[in-house]
Protein: Exonuclease domain-containing protein
Organism: Wallemia ichthyophaga
Amino acid sequence: MYAKLDDRKTCAFRDAREQETEIYESTQTNTYKSATANTLIKLKRRAPITDSTSPVIGTENTIRKRLEEAERSQSTTLTRSNLKKYIPTPAQLQEYGYVVDIPNTLGGSEPSAVGQMKDCSRCNQKYIVEDGDLLKDDCKFHDGKAITTKVDGRRSRIMSCCSTQMGSSGCCTGPHVFLEKDAESLNKRAGFIRTPLRSDSLDVVALDCEMSFTTSGMSLTRLTVVNSDAEVILDELIKPHSKIIDANTRFSGVTIKQIEESAVFDLVGIRSVLFEIGVGSDTIIVGHGLENDLNALRIVHSNILDTAILYPHPAGLPFRNSLRNLAADVLKKFIQDAAPSSGTVVATHSSLEDASTTLDFLFESCYYSPELLSSDKVALVKNLIVENDPSLDTLLETLPRFNHLNSITLSPTLATLIFEDPALDSTMALQKACPSLRQVTFAGDQVFKIVNQPSGIEFFKTKISDCNDVNLCSSCDCSPNRYQPKLMLRKRRTLRVAY
Ligand SMILES: [Zn+2]
Ligand SMILES: [Zn+2]
Ligand SMILES: [Zn+2]
């Protein structure tokens, strides 16, 4: 067996003895003989060994462990190559509010808004931005969100902070604040730059920022970056150039005092550090609602994986799933846990937790890769996403091997073919090929449910976009403030495949 190895004698002697020990330790006197015979048969069946890198050198246990290890690292390593296919197109990025080009205003030409008239982002009143007193409290606002609840069977919109009706006068007071979102204005406060090309850039990082209200809008006050093993590689407080009006401490966990005492870098400084630690234009940056973070950093970057885009809200934009809800539903991980604070309940927020959580989603979604279509593991797959347009026959051929398939997502072409067929032949065929199938989604917004009835197969259509009032819709239950796990396609046990 080892004839082609340079040190064949030593290797053969060592492995033979180790193999014997393995058998001896795993058997009793009465099973030793048959175990040895079995092992001998396996040894004879091994693939020929051509050189010392062959995967079939060693004892049976060594080889098994080596295979398991290879499989694990294949399926769970986040690399550029196995994540590239999930990167959104520039058009998608733009739709989600990403800045995809350096804006054509003069970068940093108007760093501060002091003296300018602005609309307060909390109370909507117009006010003049001042450099002065932090203790000002002429703004009355709610620091919670409007949520829909049922009171005596009737739906009503109340504020999460104080449970009063939406539109009631604010329960908190503080200074007026403003924020700018359009690329041109942001660029005037501080200029955007592109991530530089680096030859030794990291494959994947996850990133989360905290922002504070300043006299130039929202400014970066903390940056946390983790590598693909979720180890912190950068976590710094950042000193904004303009005066901090409100550090947003309840949500960011960052206080003005902390920034004043321990922030070393300013925006330009922290960006250089970010690039120095290996973030380049090729690096895939992972995050949730990452456009806010990148805008705070004033970085134009296109290799993005945003869990808000990967897991779109069933009602479509402008609604987005919160990271907290997504993590609970998809990962069964409970983050930003509600902590009681001054009588009200708020979601606390840690940039480290957020950043590493977004990575967890990717481990989930890249676990089942297209190569697995030909392996036995498809039996575990619950959701199948068909990314291209195979013929119905090709699809039907592979389906019987998916023993636990619940849902399948098809291209519009294939779905139309199946569901516009008045004879229901294709539906029956689909059902027959995969009896566990319960839901067929098509084009991302239309859900078909396949129901087994005694009278035969029926299917129902719900089209989410048919709802006029997205806020209060009883037909499809798509209120943006109530989260619909049933319409969410779970990435867990999900296989994306192009036939
Ligand atoms: Zn309130
Ligand atoms: Zn205000
Ligand atoms: Zn965050």
Summary: The first strand starts at residue 117 and ends at 119.
